[in-house]
Design brief:
With 294 residues, this protein is mostly helical. The chain has one domain. The protein has 10 helices and 6 strands; from the N terminus they run αααββαββαβαααααβ. Strands 1-2 form a two-stranded antiparallel ribbon. It has a two-stranded antiparallel ribbon with strand order 3-5. A two-stranded antiparallel ribbon has the order 4-6.
Length: 294
């Protein structure tokens, strides 16, 4: 099943990548109309999806590295875990991500930290060189912004740093991202979602391993914070959705951790590194519908 889902997700990412590649080649922002064409090519002529290969390979590499980080951390601590399952989706980015299933409990705070932190940290480490390669092959186009786009993508701090290096003084919305850079953007967004410090997300595991009390306190506050982000900008629908998801997750029983020995110093440093990664990846408004688009 894991192999089948991987293959299907690769094709949906090809469809997403093709529309980014076509838009980039034409000096235009991504188009929903072109994305619909790509979806039809999935069954009409899959070979025509070849321009989407760079995006698909880059994105699936980031997601695979993230999940393998979790997988090998589980193996290190004797936790039975599945191979990564990818989730295909006929969306503008081609996937809803990936996950592993843990089939035995996490018994120590240090194992909880290692399992939670390994995925986002190694996934971020994989995303950064991909991001910089993609931004280096991007270019400034006057019409790349909201004026002719169906959707406008936000720019996390990690992307802004790369853009400032290669295109100093330019507005991020004036830079048309190469499809590989767009794949890295998706990877950064997925990392930010996973690092939300609540529930049984990766960020929740990390915070719980540092302080179970702070996990309960902050975990209750995060949904309210996300709702405030949506309230401040109604285009940030994604945060309202995630607030609802996090509230629902609070009704799922959290397995106890029996070994409560605190984290050692190297893990505390890595916890701070995970916080920094969260800051670099988070966007108050990840994407929004451009004014005048249908």
């Amino acid at each position: 099943m894991a192999i089948v889902l991987f293959a299907v997700t690769f094709f949906t990412c090809l469809a997403a990548g093709r529309q980014f590649a076509i838009a980039f080649a034409n000096g235009q922002a991504a188009s929903l109309d072109e994305f619909e064409v790509s979806l039809k090519l999935l069954y009409k002529d899959p070979t025509a999806l070849a321009p989407g290969i760079p995006f698909a390979l880059a994105l699936m590499t980031i997601l695979l590295v993230h999940e393998l980080g979790h997988y090998f951390a589980c193996k290190q601590h004797g936790i039975r875990a599945s191979y990564p399952y990818f989730v295909p989706a006929p969306t503008l980015i081609g996937t809803f991500g990936a996950f592993i299933l843990m089939r035995s409990p996490i018994r120590t705070r240090r194992a909880l930290f290692d399992v939670g932190a390994s995925g986002p940290l190694v996934g971020f480490a994989a995303a950064i060189p991909i991001l910089w390669y993609g931004v280096a092959h991007s270019h400034v186009v006057r019409s790349a912004g909201a004026s002719n786009a169906d959707f406008v993508f936000g720019a996390p701090l990690a992307l802004r740093i790369a853009l400032q290096h290669f295109f100093p003084g330019h507005d991020p919305q004036s830079v048309l991202l190469h499809p590989v850079a767009r794949a890295a953007w998706v990877g950064l967004f997925a990392t930010a979602l996973n690092l939300l410090p609540a529930g049984q997300l990766d960020g929740g595991h990390i915070l719980r391993s540092v302080s179970p009390y702070m996990h309960r306190l902050v975990g209750a506050m995060v949904p309210a914070f996300l709702i405030l982000l949506w309230w401040n900008n109604s285009e940030a629908h994604v945060w309202l959705m995630w607030a609802v998801i996090l509230v629902a997750l609070r009704f799922i029983r959290t397995p106890p951790v029996y070994d409560q020995r605190p984290l050692d110093f190297p893990r505390v440093v890595l916890a701070l590194a995970a916080l920094l990664v969260m800051i670099l990846c988070f966007m108050p408004v990840p994407f929004w519908q451009a004014a005048g688009s249908n």
